[in-house]
């Protein structure tokens, strides 16, 4: 399993548009085959950083997922929405694997 972390730089005056974008992905991403962990909008501190996080089996599955997402009607609309509203200033993806598993159990006394 790999996890994709998307780091967005957003226009701070268009936070509401980013939230709508995130909610749309909340429907489209799972339908297209990835396990969406969530989208995170600025709350305290930076007003320009936002994140999207999802897991997928491997890079081969990711390529299939990207094709399905590009063909998905809501996915297509969300891409258009972002281009028209210009709230995404930068988008960076990195794929990571969980390095801390198995997690230790806390022993209660």
Describe the 3D structure.
Helix content is 40%, strand content 29%. It has 109 residues and is α+β, with helices and mostly antiparallel strands. It has one domain: Alpha-Beta Plaits (2-Layer Sandwich). It has a 4-stranded antiparallel sheet. Helix 1 packs antiparallel against helix 3 (73-85). The termini are far apart. The mean pLDDT is 93.
Give the topology.
Blueprint: E1 2-10, H1 15-32, E2 35-40, E3 49-56, H2 59-71, H3 73-85, E4 88-96
Antiparallel strand pairs: 1-3, 1-4, 2-3
Main beta sheet strand tally, sense and closure: 4 strands, antiparallel
Strand content: 25-35%
CATH level 1 class label:
Alpha Beta
Portion of residues in helices? 40-55%
Protein traits:
about 110 residues; alpha+beta; Alpha-Beta Plaits; four-stranded antiparallel β-sheet; 3 helices; about 40% helix; about 30% strand; globular
């Amino acid at each position: 399993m790999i996890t994709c972390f998307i780091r967005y730089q957003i226009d701070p005056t268009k936070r509401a548009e980013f939230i709508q974008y995130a909610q749309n992905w909340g429907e489209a991403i799972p339908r297209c085959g990835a396990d969406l962990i969530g989208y995170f909008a600025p709350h305290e501190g930076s007003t320009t950083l936002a994140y999207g996080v999802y897991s997928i089996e491997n890079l081969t599955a990711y390529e299939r997922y990207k094709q399905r997402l590009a063909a998905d009607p809501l996915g297509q609309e969300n891409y258009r929405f972002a281009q028209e509203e210009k709230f995404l200033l930068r988008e960076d993806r990195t794929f990571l694997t969980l390095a801390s598993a198995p997690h230790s159990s806390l022993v209660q006394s």
